[in-house]
Specification:
Strand content: under 5%
Largest sheet: none
Number of helices: 10
Helix content: 55-70%
CATH architecture of the largest domain: Up-down Bundle
Distance between the termini: 49 Å
Shape: globular
Mean pLDDT: 95
Radius of gyration: 19 Å
Order of helices and strands: HHHHHHHHHH
CATH superfamily of the largest domain: Ferritin, core subunit, four-helix bundle
Structural class: mainly alpha
Oligomer: single chain
CATH topology of the largest domain: Ferritin
Length: about 270
């Protein structure tokens, strides 16, 4: 059984439950060393997200803001928004584990662990959504994370821009959402906060994995990690290094960011 050909089928599968079952079987075989690696494999070009057949995709500017944490509709929309991020993150992890050949085995292990976590996050949030009679696909979604995959086919850009930029931004936003939910406490929001606490803790580890492999590649190519990181995110996300960012310093430090990086991104004189 070839690792890459099976994983490609999982990445492009457009039925969530079938995708998860395929991954579960594949992951067990990976952990039991039942797979072979055809390092002549070339990953196909990404043309459309796997969810386009069952979700209505719009531009991010067409989506309403998240501002109501009390009404059922507001709760549904917030959970659905984060649920879609988690589903997109599943494909991000699968593609990272698929697209790059001849990597150390721990690289594939890391990103399959991330995919497994993201599937668990998705299912956890989907259960919450079902509690309030919601479902995945009830609201429009954007495809920003998919487009980030398209824009970063090379390994160095992918590790810099996806885990170390997009996913790291989630470390900043998660506590802000929990704070708003906490100020509107009810039974549902308490359960939602507990789910977000689990996600935040595990997302720190995901960003750390990306940090490790980004620095691995910088070392291999004899590049300065800090300069390379800022160049990469500015190239893919113009203006990202110019704006003042409100950062979760503690989580980002845990995930591998240096004090100099945090000061530059936050435009502050310290990193506390």
């Amino acid at each position: 059984m070839d690792y890459f050909s099976i994983l490609e089928a999982i990445l492009f599968e457009n039925l969530p439950q079938k995708k998860f079952k395929m991954f579960d079987d594949f992951y067990k075989n990976f952990l039991e060393n039942n797979l072979t690696f055809n390092n002549n494999y070339k990953a196909p070009k990404l043309n459309a997200p796997s969810y386009e057949s069952f979700l209505n995709i719009v531009k991010p500017t067409a989506l309403p803001p998240i501002k109501n944490f009390k009404s059922i509709e507001g709760k549904k929309y917030l959970v659905h928004t984060i649920l879609h991020i988690e589903y997109s993150a599943i494909d991000l992890a699968l593609d990272a584990a698929l697209r790059y050949q001849n990597m150390p085995i721990n690289y594939y292990k890391d990103w399959l662990e991330v995919a497994n976590d993201e599937i668990r996050h998705f299912l956890m949030l989907e259960e919450l959504l079902k509690e309030i009679d919601g479902f995945y696909g009830e609201f429009d979604v954007h495809k920003n994370l998919f487009e980030a995959m398209q824009q970063t086919p090379d390994f160095l850009s992918r590790m810099a821009c996806v885990p170390r930029y997009l996913e790291a931004n989630g470390l900043d936003q998660n506590p802000k959402i929990m704070e708003k939910l906490n100020s509107n406490r009810d039974d549902f929001n308490i359960k939602f906060i507990k789910a977000l606490e689990i996600i935040l803790k595990e997302e720190v580890d995901h960003v750390k994995k990306g940090d490790n492999w980004f620095k691995y590649e910088c070392k291999r190519l004899n590049l300065d990690p800090k300069e390379t990181y800022f160049e990469a995110i500015e190239r893919i996300f113009p203006g990202s290094t110019k704006r003042k960012m409100d950062l979760n310093f503690f989580a980002r430090k845990e995930a591998g960011f240096s004090c100099d990086e945090l000061k530059f991104l936050s435009k502050k004189e310290d990193c506390f």
